[in-house]
Specification:
globular, single chain, alpha+beta, Chalcone isomerase, 9 strands, seven-stranded antiparallel β-sheet
Length: about 190
Amino acid sequence: MNKILGTIFGIFCLSGQARAIEAAGVSFAEVQELEGHKLLLNGVGLREATIFSIRVYAAGLYLESKTQNPDEIMNSKQIRRVDMQFVRNVGADDVKGAWEKSFEKNCGKCETFQKPISEILSKMSEMKKGERMSFLFFPDSSLRMHIRGQEVLRQNVEGFSRIVLASWFGPSPPNESLKRGLLGVPKE
């Protein structure tokens, strides 16, 4: 009887699952629930490094309302989430260095945000293939950072969420195809 109930439950769960979108072998559900809010997968992209286009991580952007406008994403009062799953091992110094570079290139007034930037950088760690790092952005300006499913940082600094989001959507994203993918812009 337990096997029959287990099989029925498994079939029921599979039939109710949302479809997934894949990038570099990483699946992203089309819908996520977060604190009672339904977030839709806006787009997925692939972070590539060096002139050899080495794959680093696949990322998915979740929004309450989809948009292809980067300014709307950075300035929005909706809940936003960026999930990054690493497709290769990356050392802590490399992860931290990439974020430092991104803040330098995309932050217009970084001196105002030195403390929250330092806090984020202090949480950067080695990421192994298959591990996830996530950033959650809330309407009250709060930001939460998760590594390997564990919350490692919670901040509430007015305007700082925009600075972090500029890492992907600002003038100097890690690579343009990652930005376009997260925005859901079709490939040219």
